[in-house]
Amino acid sequence: MKGLMIVDNSIILREYHSEDCTEIMQLFYDTIHSVNAADYNENQLNAWAPKLKDNDIAYWDSRFLQDHAVVAEKDGIIVGIGTSKSAGYFDMLYVHKDYQRIGVATLIADRIEKYFRSNGVMTLTTDASITAKPFFENRGYVVIKEQTVETRGQLFTNYKMQKIHN
Ligand SMILES: CC(C)(COP(=O)(O)OP(=O)(O)OC[C@H]1O[C@@H](n2cnc3c(N)ncnc32)[C@H](O)[C@@H]1OP(=O)(O)O)[C@@H](O)C(=O)NCCC(=O)NCCS
Q1: How far apart are CA 125 and CA 157, in angstroms?
Q2: Which of the residues 14, 106, 129, 149 has the least number of beta carbons within 10 Å of its own beta carbon?
Q3: Structural domains in the chain?
Q4: Pairing between strand 154-164 and 142-151?
Q5: Whose CA is nearest to atom 19 of ligand 1?
Q6: pTM of the predicted protein model
């Protein structure tokens, strides 16, 4: 995505810059340890989002730079991040814990889906958390399978979901 795109009166979608990385890592940590706490236990949350270390930044920065990251910003605060990979894979989607249910993820997902469509990719897939499943269902994604994945020794239920554009 090039440049800024003002999508409603106050939320801006823009491309990722390396200077965003620390703020996004904090968002990621805080959202998992509060919003996802509704669906996963403490051991799982600690494995999913361990305490931040300085050397995580370089790893995540290079991932965000590679993965077509879309950043949502409101009043100078980063309120959401979405990433995608080639071949229609919708990878990360995290909204700031204090900005839930105001349409941030919808704006990011609209932008990412449009990007796929404009590249001729009509089949979209994601691995949705229990928490995110209703969001994706609301956008027309269907569960292909429930799965158990392992991260840092913890097992997690999530859902392989798919949406096919006409
Ligand atoms: C899932 C998540 C990205 C949704 O972000 P959001 O900005 O709050 O979502 P939106 O406001 O765009 O929601 C759009 C619609 O999706 C549905 N929806 C979203 N969250 C929902 C929930 N918790 N329960 C039921 N429906 C939900 C609703 O239909 C909602 O419309 P409504 O608010 O008018 O009812 C956000 O809750 C989040 O960051 N979760 C934790 C991180 C996570 O699990 N990410 C996925 C990793 S795989």
Answers
A1: 17
A2: 149
A3: 4-120 (3.40.630.30)
A4: antiparallel
A5: 135
A6: 0.95
